[in-house]
Amino acid sequence: MTYNHAGKLVARALKNEGTEVVFTLCGGHVMSIYDGCIDEGIRVVDVRHEATAAFAADGWSRLTGRPGVAIVTAGPGVTNAVTAVANAWRAQSPAVIIGGQGPHNLAGKGALQEMDGIGLMKPITKWQVQVTDPKRIPDTIATAFRQAASGVPGPVYVELPVDVLFENIEPEDVVFPRPFAGRPALPGDPERVAAAGALLRAAEHPVVLLGSQVRWSGRWDGIEHCSEVFGAPVYLSGMARGLLPPVWGRSRKAALAEADLVIVCGTPLDFRLNYGQAPTWNDTCKVIHIDMDPAEPGRNRDADVAIVGDPVSVLTALMAMGDLGAGRPERQAWLAKFLAVEEKQAAKMRPGLAADSVPIDPLRLCAEVDACLPDGVTIIGDGGDFVATAASVLRVRRYPAGWMDPGPLGTLGVGMGFAMAARLARPDSPVLLLLGDGTAGLNLMEVEAAVRQGIPFVAVIGNDAGWTQIRRGQVQMFGEDRAPATGLDFTRYDLAAAGLGAHAEYVEHPDEIRPALERAFAAGKPAVVNVKLGASDFRSGAISI
Q: How far apart are CA 420 and CA 400, in angstroms?
């Protein structure tokens, strides 16, 4: 192949790493890469905002286990992608972001869209580099993939000046490195694993928390039995959802308050776990903290045993240690106690799940959605109060990445990019996108991109006419008459979606939900079901700050 411009080198280097799809919003600085993608058979999917391109790259990474790729143009193209890159950074998702730049030979003169992209991306990426010699493009792209996926995964940023991309290159001047072979297993220190086993044997009331890092641990065979082997309730969060049968979920807070040992596995002790502190946690409980990042165990709460390694490898080693006390009467009583808590919490939800009220109870909507979801569906949550309700009701149908949400940055707007990535990565599997009505206003225009490029998914909008997750606390603190900026209208987002070419429906009665969803999944194109919701006290007391 003759490289009459270096954009073809970029595309071939991406193909060498197994890239099938790139996500982008067009820009003159990076258009030569598209030309190369055509030669290499890489699908170019264009979106209507650069953040969506980077969100889609993040989503592709979570879905496939291989770094997804977003290509954004210089200046505002890069700045528009920043929020999505930051989201991937906090979620430890290994995306590769390629950004344009003004001509290198005019650096500092004020070229169109020139800015310091490297400096901007440095705090929110694992690795950043500008390529000034086109012959270095193949090894730089190869390094980007290795950097993104190795150790603690995360996004990387590769900047390509436009004059570098348009240079002519002779084939004999270029060497393509061997592709990244993938993540090896990272077992923990055997002595520390043995110490963790000793603590677990001695415990009477153990709890296990499994978080998103299990996604990057490789094989999951056997881990589904860890609750029985440990004699402990196992609570899943983030990208661990779907790994185990849905037994435990509603009793976590009560269990942490009484536990004498907590195994924290692949998740930080951040705001979601009250930083490991009382009153959420029993102050005297011991902690085994397993994480890929050596600096994480001990942050916010001391770890009695800190193990650096991938969660699945370490858990597998723990499970192989023989009798860990699961059969002892106090362990069985402990499990029975919190199975009863699970049932009690489920019973509280049942009236809402069966409610015939109009406007529709959010729990009833979630129950109807769950009842008609097919096996193998990918569920994406992009919203506040409605999505938090759905997370308590919907059963994850597959692993990995059967449930996807933003992660700890709490970014709204991930959904459209995730949904497009999910359908492209799993072309034979349906995709359900759950949107709050606030979130729907952020990027509904992406429906046009999905319709035009034949990327079907079903979006359900839980429309309660407000930013309810924020408004609830705002009203509690300041009063109804001092709660600006959080109220919305029951807007007809379905009509906007129909104007963009989607299948669209508006639902106001509970008995209309399931037929509307069935039609949406059968439509064969992007579909938006806008459901008018009433108020609910299911999440009363939930204040998000």
A: 17
- How big is the CA angle at 322 (ends 319 and 323), to the nearest 5 degrees? 105
pLDDT in tens, 521-534: 999 999 999 999 99
Report pTM: 0.97
Residue 170, Cα to own-chain centre: how many angstroms?
41
Tell me which residue has tokens 């979920």: 249
Pull the structure tokens for residue 296. 């994480």
Domain spans of the chain?
A: 7-173, 190-341, 354-532
Q: For residue range 182-221, list pLDDT tens digits in order.
A: 999 999 999 999 999 999 999 999 999 999 999 998 788 8
Distance (Å, whole) CA 72 – CA 44: 12
Would you tell me the crossing angle of helices 7-16 and 31-40 to the nearest 10 degrees?
50
CATH architecture under which domain 354-532 falls? 3-Layer(aba) Sandwich (3.40)
Instruction: Using only the alpha carbons of the chain, give its radius of gyration.
Output: 24
| Chosen CATH of 7-173 out of 3.40.50.920, 3.40.1160.10, 3.40.50.970, 3.10.20.70 | 3.40.50.970
**Beta pairing partners, 360:** 533
Alpha carbon of 304 to those of 189, 258, 259, 370: distances in Å? Answer: 15, 17, 14, 40
Nearest to 213 by CA among 314, 300, 82, 324: 314
Sheet holding 431-436, edge to edge: 403-404, 378-382, 431-436, 458-463, 527-532, 503-507
pLDDT band with cut points at 50, 70 and 90 for residue 107: confident
Calpha distance 255→275 (Å, rounded): 16
Cα(512)–Cα(14) distance, integer angstroms: 46
Sequence-ordered alpha helix ranges (H) in 186-322: 190-202, 226-230, 252-258, 311-319
- CATH class of the region 190-341: alpha beta
Q: Does the pLDDT value for residue 544 go beyond 80?
A: no
Which parts of 266-345 are beta strand (E)? Answer: 286-291, 305-308
User: Do the beta carbons of residue 201 and residue 324 sit within 8 Å?
Assistant: yes
